[in-house]
């Protein structure tokens, strides 16, 4: 970018010098014509001069003003090309036509003594040249300009005063100097034009090289981005597969945990309550035999049965205490529910919203156990059966009843068959004097209402 700006700065400087050079040559030429006319008038050779020309020359003041004004228009058009960026196409053509007209008028004003301004016109157009279409237009315009010049020189000679006519009124030595100056002016302008074209072509060549390099870099960058996107898509696919397997694994773990808990509950019932009831039944059978003929023995046996029953009750209470969720033992009810929701959401990927509204803190232990198990079972059903992605749990207790609503966006079920889970939840709620309702037209909604009986 810095190289391109430097080269373009050189092209602008050469263009400015070329414009100034042409302006100086045209000004000197106009002054030469004006001074020569004054010399002719002062030398009393006007009659001889009129014999040499076909018509009266343009007055010196008008010729100088016309040359200066027309060249100023040409210079302004060149300035517009060099400094105004992103010219509209139509405006660019209009500017060029104005410059061509000003150039023709300038050539006519100076009697075709100097045609180097045509190269300045060509340089201006080459500066803003873009594409094959504009090149054809440029060549056409150049042919028009040269055609006008040739036509004016060959067919309209009566409108043009030859440079030799003005030279005739100077000495041979001065004529040689003036001819040399005229030729030098033409060669100098050609040199400026060649230098300008070389610098401009270097600019365009370097700019094209930079554009090609930029295109190559963009292609490489796009390829790298495509490769990165492919890798990212593969990673996302693998991550989704891993998440799916993790959810399946979490559900499997939950199912296995539930089975393990049921087996443990069965063992506890068998080892505690079953053993105690078996001993009580056997003792009562013995009492039925001894009650008539050995009352004292029967009393002792009944005392032993009572002790066995008390031990059974103690064992049952111990087993029930062990079956209570560990989080409810360590945390308050709200924190235990939050931990349950967070653990479930992390394991299953289901979004769960838990909201409390004036929900009491000091509930009885049996109430918190039932509510905890209902939330736990509802979350499991929403993920396993409803395939839900979002679950909302709302728990309120402003009135005399505790109101719990659990809803999900799962597949739902218009006709719900009451299975083991719902049946078990209903039994637990009924034991506490509450009610349980559910419906599944849109997703699944479970509503529980419990009396607000708090512990003292």
Question: Would you write up a description of this structure?
Answer:
The protein is an alpha+beta fold. It is 73% helix and 8% strand. The protein contains 13 helices and 5 strands. The protein has helices at 2-42, 46-52, 60-83, 89-109, 117-127, 131-155, 163-167, 172-290, 295-323, 326-330, 333-348, 365-384, 420-431; strands spanning 351-357, 390-396, 401-408, 435-439, 444-451. It has a 5-stranded mixed sheet, with helices on one face. The longest helix is centred in the middle third of the chain and has 119 residues, at 172-290. The chain is rod-shaped.
Strand content: 5-15%
Any idea what the shape is? rod-shaped
Helical residues, percent: over 70%
Secondary structure tally: strands: 5
In terms of per-residue confidence, which ranges show pLDDT below 50 for 5 or more consecutive residues? 1-7
| Separate helix tally | 13
Major sheet: arrangement of strands: 1-2-3-5-4
Biggest sheet, in brief?
Answer: 5 strands, mixed
Give the SSE layout.
Layout: H1 2-42, H2 46-52, H3 60-83, H4 89-109, H5 117-127, H6 131-155, H7 163-167, H8 172-290, H9 295-323, H10 326-330, H11 333-348, E1 351-357, H12 365-384, E2 390-396, E3 401-408, H13 420-431, E4 435-439, E5 444-451
Parallel strand pairs: 1-2
Antiparallel strand pairs: 2-3, 3-5, 4-5
Helix pairs in contact: 1-3, 1-5, 1-8, 3-4, 3-5, 4-5, 4-6, 5-8, 8-9, 11-12, 12-13
């Amino acid at each position: 970018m810095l190289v391109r700006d430097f080269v373009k700065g050189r092209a602008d400087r050469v263009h400015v010098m070329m414009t100034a050079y042409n302006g100086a040559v045209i000004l000197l030429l106009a002054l030469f014509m004006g001074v020569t006319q004054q010399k002719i008038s002062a030398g009393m050779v006007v009659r001889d001069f009129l014999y040499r020309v076909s018509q009266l020359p343009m007055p010196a003041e008008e010729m100088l003003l016309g040359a200066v004004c027309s060249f100023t228009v040409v210079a302004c058009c060149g300035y517009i090309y060099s400094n105004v960026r992103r010219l509209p196409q139509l405006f660019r053509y209009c500017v060029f036509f104005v410059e061509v007209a000003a150039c023709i008028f300038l050539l006519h004003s100076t009697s075709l003594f100097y045609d180097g301004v045509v190269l300045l016109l060509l340089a201006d157009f080459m500066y803003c040249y873009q594409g094959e279409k504009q090149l054809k237009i440029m060549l056409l315009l150049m042919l028009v300009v040269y055609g006008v010049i040739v036509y004016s020189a060959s067919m309209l000679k009566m409108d043009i005063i030859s440079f030799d006519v003005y030279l005739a009124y100077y000495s041979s030595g001065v004529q040689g100097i003036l001819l040399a100056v005229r030729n030098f002016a033409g060669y100098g302008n050609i040199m400026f034009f060649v230098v300008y074209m070389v610098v401009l072509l270097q600019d365009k060549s370097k700019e094209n090289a930079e554009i090609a390099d930029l295109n190559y870099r963009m292609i490489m960058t796009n390829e790298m981005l495509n490769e990165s996107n492919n890798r990212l898509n593969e990673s996302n696919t693998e991550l989704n597969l891993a998440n799916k397997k993790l959810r399946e694994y979490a559900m499997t773990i939950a199912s296995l945990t539930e089975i393990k808990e049921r087996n443990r509950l069965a063992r506890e019932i068998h080892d505690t309550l079953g053993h105690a009831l078996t001993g009580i039944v056997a003792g009562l059978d013995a009492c039925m035999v001894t009650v008539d003929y050995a009352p004292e023995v029967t009393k002792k046996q009944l005392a032993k049965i009572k002790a066995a029953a008390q031990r059974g009750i103690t064992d049952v209470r111990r087993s029930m205490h062990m079956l209570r969720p560990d989080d409810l033992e360590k945390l308050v009810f709200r924190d235990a529910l939050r931990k349950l929701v967070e653990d479930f959401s992390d394991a299953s990927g289901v979004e769960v919203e838990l909201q409390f509204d004036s929900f009491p803190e000091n509930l009885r232990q049996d109430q918190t156990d039932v509510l905890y198990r209902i939330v736990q079972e509802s979350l499991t059903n929403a993920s396993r059966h409803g395939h839900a992605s979002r679950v909302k749990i709302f728990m309120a207790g402003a009135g005399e009843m505790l109101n719990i609503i659990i809803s999900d966006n799962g597949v739902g079920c218009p006709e719900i068959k009451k299975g083991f889970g719902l049946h078990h939840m209903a039994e637990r709620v009924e034991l506490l004097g509450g009610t349980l309702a559910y419906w599944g037209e849109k997703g699944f909604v479970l509503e529980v209402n419990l009396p607000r009986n708090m512990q003292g």
